[in-house]
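User: I'm putting together a small comparison set for a docking exercise, and I want a reference complex before I start. The sequence is below, and the ligand is flavin mononucleotide. Could you produce the 3D structure with the ligand included, as C-alpha coordinates?
Assistant: Of course. I'll restate your input first, then give the C-alpha coordinates for the complex.
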Amino acid sequence: MLEIIGKRRSIRKFLPKDVEQEKIDEILKAAMFSPSAMNSRPWEFIVVRDQELKNKISKATQWIGFVKDAPVLLVIAGKEGRILPSLWIEDCSIAAENVYLEAANQKLGTCFCQITGSKTLTIAGKDSEEYIRKVLDIPKGIRVLCVMPIGYPNEKKEEHKESEFDIKKVHNDKY
Ligand SMILES: Cc1cc2nc3c(=O)[nH]c(=O)nc-3n(C[C@H](O)[C@H](O)[C@H](O)COP(=O)(O)O)c2cc1C
Protein backbone atom coordinates (compact mmCIF):
# COMPACT_ATOMS: atom_id res chain seq x y z
CA MET A 1 0.00 0.00 0.00
CA LEU A 2 1.15 3.58 -0.58
CA GLU A 3 2.71 4.87 2.65
CA ILE A 4 0.84 8.20 2.43
CA ILE A 5 -2.54 6.41 2.59
CA GLY A 6 -1.68 5.09 6.04
CA LYS A 7 -0.34 8.45 7.21
CA ARG A 8 -3.26 10.59 6.04
CA ARG A 9 -5.51 11.78 8.88
CA SER A 10 -8.07 14.55 9.26
CA ILE A 11 -6.35 17.55 10.86
CA ARG A 12 -8.38 20.19 12.69
CA LYS A 13 -5.67 22.18 14.49
CA PHE A 14 -3.22 24.34 12.57
CA LEU A 15 -0.06 26.32 13.33
CA PRO A 16 -0.36 30.08 12.79
CA LYS A 17 1.99 29.78 9.82
CA ASP A 18 1.13 30.60 6.23
CA VAL A 19 1.17 27.94 3.51
CA GLU A 20 3.35 28.62 0.47
CA GLN A 21 1.35 29.21 -2.72
CA GLU A 22 3.50 26.60 -4.56
CA LYS A 23 2.22 23.95 -2.14
CA ILE A 24 -1.38 25.01 -2.71
CA ASP A 25 -0.75 24.89 -6.47
CA GLU A 26 0.60 21.35 -6.16
CA ILE A 27 -2.49 20.32 -4.17
CA LEU A 28 -4.74 21.89 -6.82
CA LYS A 29 -2.86 20.03 -9.53
CA ALA A 30 -3.35 16.74 -7.65
CA ALA A 31 -7.08 17.51 -7.41
CA MET A 32 -7.30 18.21 -11.13
CA PHE A 33 -5.49 14.95 -11.97
CA SER A 34 -8.45 13.04 -10.50
CA PRO A 35 -10.62 10.74 -12.59
CA SER A 36 -14.10 12.02 -13.48
CA ALA A 37 -17.13 10.59 -15.22
CA MET A 38 -16.76 10.97 -18.99
CA ASN A 39 -13.73 13.11 -18.15
CA SER A 40 -16.19 15.93 -17.47
CA ARG A 41 -13.96 17.56 -14.81
CA PRO A 42 -16.89 19.42 -13.25
CA TRP A 43 -14.87 20.83 -10.34
CA GLU A 44 -14.23 24.43 -9.34
CA PHE A 45 -11.85 25.33 -6.50
CA ILE A 46 -12.08 28.53 -4.48
CA VAL A 47 -8.92 29.30 -2.50
CA VAL A 48 -9.77 31.53 0.45
CA ARG A 49 -7.14 33.38 2.49
CA ASP A 50 -9.19 36.42 3.58
CA GLN A 51 -9.84 36.20 7.35
CA GLU A 52 -13.29 37.79 7.22
CA LEU A 53 -14.42 35.27 4.60
CA LYS A 54 -12.88 32.40 6.59
CA ASN A 55 -14.83 33.52 9.69
CA LYS A 56 -18.05 33.51 7.68
CA ILE A 57 -17.34 30.12 6.10
CA SER A 58 -16.67 28.62 9.55
CA LYS A 59 -20.32 29.30 10.41
CA ALA A 60 -21.65 27.30 7.46
CA THR A 61 -22.34 24.23 9.65
CA GLN A 62 -22.10 23.41 13.34
CA TRP A 63 -19.18 21.04 12.72
CA ILE A 64 -16.65 23.31 11.04
CA GLY A 65 -15.96 26.20 13.46
CA PHE A 66 -12.25 25.25 13.55
CA VAL A 67 -11.70 26.14 9.87
CA LYS A 68 -11.42 29.85 10.67
CA ASP A 69 -7.97 29.16 12.18
CA ALA A 70 -6.51 27.56 9.06
CA PRO A 71 -4.35 29.80 6.83
CA VAL A 72 -6.08 28.57 3.67
CA LEU A 73 -9.55 27.23 2.94
CA LEU A 74 -10.14 25.26 -0.22
CA VAL A 75 -13.81 25.20 -1.16
CA ILE A 76 -14.63 22.40 -3.60
CA ALA A 77 -17.61 23.00 -5.85
CA GLY A 78 -18.87 21.38 -9.04
CA LYS A 79 -21.22 21.81 -11.95
CA GLU A 80 -24.21 19.46 -12.21
CA GLY A 81 -24.05 17.24 -15.30
CA ARG A 82 -26.67 17.13 -18.06
CA ILE A 83 -27.01 13.32 -18.32
CA LEU A 84 -26.58 12.30 -14.68
CA PRO A 85 -26.88 15.53 -12.67
CA SER A 86 -25.44 14.14 -9.41
CA LEU A 87 -22.12 12.90 -10.85
CA TRP A 88 -20.38 16.08 -9.71
CA ILE A 89 -20.56 14.67 -6.16
CA GLU A 90 -18.51 11.55 -7.00
CA ASP A 91 -16.09 13.53 -9.18
CA CYS A 92 -15.49 16.25 -6.58
CA SER A 93 -15.26 13.71 -3.73
CA ILE A 94 -12.45 11.88 -5.53
CA ALA A 95 -10.73 15.24 -6.09
CA ALA A 96 -11.11 15.88 -2.33
CA GLU A 97 -9.30 12.62 -1.56
CA ASN A 98 -6.44 13.71 -3.84
CA VAL A 99 -6.35 16.97 -1.84
CA TYR A 100 -6.10 14.93 1.37
CA LEU A 101 -3.27 12.81 -0.03
CA GLU A 102 -1.21 15.59 -1.62
CA ALA A 103 -1.61 17.75 1.51
CA ALA A 104 -0.25 14.84 3.59
CA ASN A 105 2.55 14.42 1.05
CA GLN A 106 3.44 18.12 1.56
CA LYS A 107 3.40 17.61 5.39
CA LEU A 108 0.25 19.73 5.53
CA GLY A 109 -3.03 18.85 7.22
CA THR A 110 -6.58 19.08 5.94
CA CYS A 111 -10.08 17.82 6.68
CA PHE A 112 -13.16 17.16 4.54
CA CYS A 113 -15.85 19.49 5.93
CA GLN A 114 -19.28 18.61 4.61
CA ILE A 115 -21.41 21.37 3.09
CA THR A 116 -23.90 19.63 0.75
CA GLY A 117 -27.13 18.81 2.57
CA SER A 118 -26.13 20.62 5.78
CA LYS A 119 -27.74 23.49 7.65
CA THR A 120 -26.02 26.66 8.84
CA LEU A 121 -25.33 27.33 12.49
CA THR A 122 -26.19 31.00 12.41
CA ILE A 123 -29.39 31.35 10.43
CA ALA A 124 -31.73 28.60 11.66
CA GLY A 125 -32.72 26.20 8.92
CA LYS A 126 -30.71 27.94 6.21
CA ASP A 127 -29.04 25.69 3.69
CA SER A 128 -25.23 25.61 4.11
CA GLU A 129 -24.66 25.42 0.38
CA GLU A 130 -26.77 28.53 -0.28
CA TYR A 131 -24.94 30.29 2.54
CA ILE A 132 -21.45 29.50 1.11
CA ARG A 133 -22.64 30.39 -2.39
CA LYS A 134 -23.70 33.81 -1.12
CA VAL A 135 -20.53 34.44 0.92
CA LEU A 136 -18.25 33.57 -2.03
CA ASP A 137 -20.36 34.81 -4.98
CA ILE A 138 -20.63 31.30 -6.42
CA PRO A 139 -23.13 31.21 -9.33
CA LYS A 140 -26.41 29.27 -9.01
CA GLY A 141 -25.57 26.26 -11.23
CA ILE A 142 -22.42 25.48 -9.25
CA ARG A 143 -22.97 23.15 -6.28
CA VAL A 144 -20.79 23.23 -3.15
CA LEU A 145 -19.45 19.92 -1.81
CA CYS A 146 -17.07 20.73 1.02
CA VAL A 147 -14.56 23.05 2.60
CA MET A 148 -11.01 21.76 3.16
CA PRO A 149 -8.91 23.84 5.58
CA ILE A 150 -5.22 23.57 4.76
CA GLY A 151 -2.33 24.35 7.08
CA TYR A 152 0.66 23.02 8.99
CA PRO A 153 -0.67 20.54 11.58
CA ASN A 154 -0.74 21.57 15.22
CA GLU A 155 -1.82 18.12 16.39
CA LYS A 156 -0.21 14.74 16.05
CA LYS A 157 -2.36 11.84 14.97
CA GLU A 158 -1.54 8.17 14.78
CA GLU A 159 -1.24 6.49 11.43
CA HIS A 160 -4.00 4.11 10.41
CA LYS A 161 -3.59 0.67 11.96
CA GLU A 162 -3.80 -2.90 10.66
CA SER A 163 -6.80 -3.41 13.00
CA GLU A 164 -8.87 -1.07 10.79
CA PHE A 165 -8.80 -3.70 8.09
CA ASP A 166 -12.12 -5.47 8.73
CA ILE A 167 -12.52 -8.73 6.86
CA LYS A 168 -16.27 -8.74 7.73
CA LYS A 169 -16.69 -5.83 5.31
CA VAL A 170 -15.47 -7.98 2.44
CA HIS A 171 -17.92 -10.21 0.56
CA ASN A 172 -16.75 -12.76 -1.95
CA ASP A 173 -18.92 -13.43 -4.99
CA LYS A 174 -22.22 -12.64 -3.16
CA TYR A 175 -23.05 -10.43 -0.16
C1 LIG B 1 -18.14 12.99 3.58
C2 LIG B 1 -17.34 13.43 4.79
C3 LIG B 1 -17.82 14.47 5.56
C4 LIG B 1 -17.06 14.92 6.67
N1 LIG B 1 -17.50 16.03 7.34
C5 LIG B 1 -16.76 16.50 8.36
C6 LIG B 1 -17.15 17.70 9.03
O1 LIG B 1 -18.14 18.34 8.69
N2 LIG B 1 -16.38 18.13 10.06
C7 LIG B 1 -15.25 17.46 10.46
O2 LIG B 1 -14.59 17.90 11.40
N3 LIG B 1 -14.84 16.31 9.83
C8 LIG B 1 -15.56 15.83 8.80
N4 LIG B 1 -15.13 14.71 8.10
C9 LIG B 1 -13.88 14.01 8.51
C10 LIG B 1 -14.18 12.69 9.23
O3 LIG B 1 -14.66 12.96 10.52
C11 LIG B 1 -12.91 11.83 9.26
O4 LIG B 1 -12.52 11.51 7.94
C12 LIG B 1 -13.11 10.52 10.04
O5 LIG B 1 -13.35 10.78 11.40
C13 LIG B 1 -11.92 9.56 9.91
O6 LIG B 1 -10.73 10.16 10.39
P1 LIG B 1 -9.43 10.32 9.46
O7 LIG B 1 -9.83 11.16 8.28
O8 LIG B 1 -8.41 11.00 10.33
O9 LIG B 1 -9.00 8.96 9.00
C14 LIG B 1 -15.85 14.25 7.02
C15 LIG B 1 -15.39 13.21 6.21
C16 LIG B 1 -16.11 12.81 5.11
C17 LIG B 1 -15.56 11.70 4.24
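Residues 60 and 155 are 24 Å apart (CA to CA). The helical segments are 3-7, 21-32, 51-57, 87-105, 128-135.
User: Thanks, that's exactly what I needed.
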